[in-house]
Specification:
- This protein has 170 residues and is α+β, with helices and mostly antiparallel strands.
- It has one domain: SOS response associated peptidase-like (hypothetical protein yedk fold).
- The chain is 13% helix and 28% strand.
- A three-stranded antiparallel beta sheet has the order 1-4-5. The protein has a three-stranded antiparallel beta sheet with strand order 2-3-8, with no helix packed on it. A two-stranded antiparallel ribbon has the order 6-7.
- Strand 4 and strand 5 form a beta hairpin.
- The longest helix is centred in the C-terminal third of the chain and has 13 residues.
Length: 170
């Protein structure tokens, strides 16, 4: 905390809410900055710490961790903890390890203001590392519509490719 503070830029993060009934599946939510009237969100950055350490074979490994704190009221229905967000006007203070003591920087470790974030349910497809698309952060109703439109789309038959003299890696 004294010498290795960092910022981790983010567009948002996923959090899972336990089902209301015992044994019910958890539901994923995407948490992001609230948009203004023009649809623009403020920049978000997690408070982080970093370190480089030497492994048993002499290799160097760079690591980072996101600092968490007690969830604010809005997120407490999803989880009891949340990442610490450093406000843009405090970026320099957080990063200035040479001139800002750790206890002064630690004053930034607190729940985000109630007006900073919004959360909405998303598809359970986020729970699979093989899935990687913008559809994962669409609200669950929009994601369901997208999935249905993909399912209803006509299937294109691919023509066999003519050899072009190039080797294939697949």
């Amino acid at each position: 905390m004294r010498r290795r503070r960092c910022l981790i830029p983010t567009d948002g993060f996923f959090e899972w809410q336990a089902g209301a009934k015992a044994g019910a599946p958890k539901r994923p939510y995407f948490v992001r900055a609230k948009r203004n009237a023009d649809g623009i969100a403020p920049p978000l950055a997690f408070a982080g710490l970093w370190e480089t350490w030497t492994g048993p074979n002499g290799e160097e490994l760079d690591t980072a961790a996101i600092i968490t704190t007690t969830a604010n009221r809005m997120l407490s229905g999803l989880h009891d903890r949340m990442p610490v967000f450093v406000p843009p006007d405090a970026f320099e203070l957080w990063l200035d390890c040479a001139n800002v003591e750790a206890d002064v920087a630690a004053a930034l470790i607190r729940p985000a203001g109630e007006d900073l974030l919004e959360a909405y349910e998303v598809s359970t497809a986020v729970n699979r590392a093989a899935n990687d698309s913008e559809a994962l952060i669409q609200p669950v109703a929009a994601a369901a519509i997208h999935a249905q439109s993909v399912a209803d789309a006509p299937v294109k038959k691919e023509r066999p490719k003519k050899p072009d003299g190039q080797a294939s890696l697949l």
